[in-house]
Each structure stands twice: as C-alpha cells, then as structure tokens.
Amino acid sequence: MLSNIATVFAGLIGAGIIFMGALAFWAPQAAVGFGIPDTPTEDRSFHAWLSVKAVREIASGLFIFILLAGGTTHLLGWFMLAASAIPVGDAVIVLRSNGPKSAVYGIHGATAVVMLTISALLLIA
What is the DSSP track for the chain? Predict the structure, then answer.
C-alpha cells in the first residue's frame, strides 16, 4: 500500500520535473522562481545555461518514468534517493547566492524531503 502511494508520488515528481524543464526551456524568465537573486533573464548566454539545465531536468523526469515502466520499486527507490541530491544541491546554490530562504527551504528543501520520503517508502517495500 505505501509503496503504491510512493510510486504515484514518484510519478508526480517526474511529471513536475519534466514540466519545470520544459517551462525553463521555452520561457527562461521562469528561472526567477528558482531563487537566485538578480537572475539576468535578458542575457542570451544565461539563457543558454538555462537551456542546458532544462534539458537535464526533462531527462531526469524521463528516467523516473522509465523506472516506473520497467524497474522494480527498489530500483526506483535507489534512483529517487540518489536524485534527491539535486534539490539539496539546488538549495545550497540558492543559499550561497543569498537567495530567499523561502526558495531554499520551501522549494528545494521541501522537494528533497519529499524525495527522501518517497525513496524510503520504496526501499522498505
């Protein structure tokens, strides 16, 4: 039962990551919500870096769906555990950039906690 709920949440995380990546790819000004202050949304070089990040987010979301389709709950759990390093790293980046604490803890920190919870539920299943 808990592994089924965790699997659904993993799918929602995957869909969310793909959505955020697509949004950042097509509308780079969406990066302002990431939490880095003074985001140069008109800088073409910065847009290129945002596109790189966006493609990686889309691929990360697709990895989750590949594991949902063909993997085991334990394999998905291990992947979610490893992937939780991404929002932790994002939180550190925003914190070091003097970004808003709401983004550090409310966006990236909360995402890391959710992903760690999902991985724990999948790994104990």
Answer: -HHHHHHHHHHHHHHHHHHHHHHHHH-GGGGGGG--TT--TT-HHHHHHHHHHHHHHHHHHHHHHHHHHHS-HHHHHHHHHHHTHHHHHHHHHHHHTT--HIIIIIIIIHHHHHHHHHHHHHHH-
Q: Structural domain tally of the chain?
A: 1
State the pTM of this model.
Answer: 0.87
* For the chain, percent of residues with pLDDT exceeding 90: 66
* Domain of 67, in residue numbers: 2-124
Res 44 pLDDT > 90: no
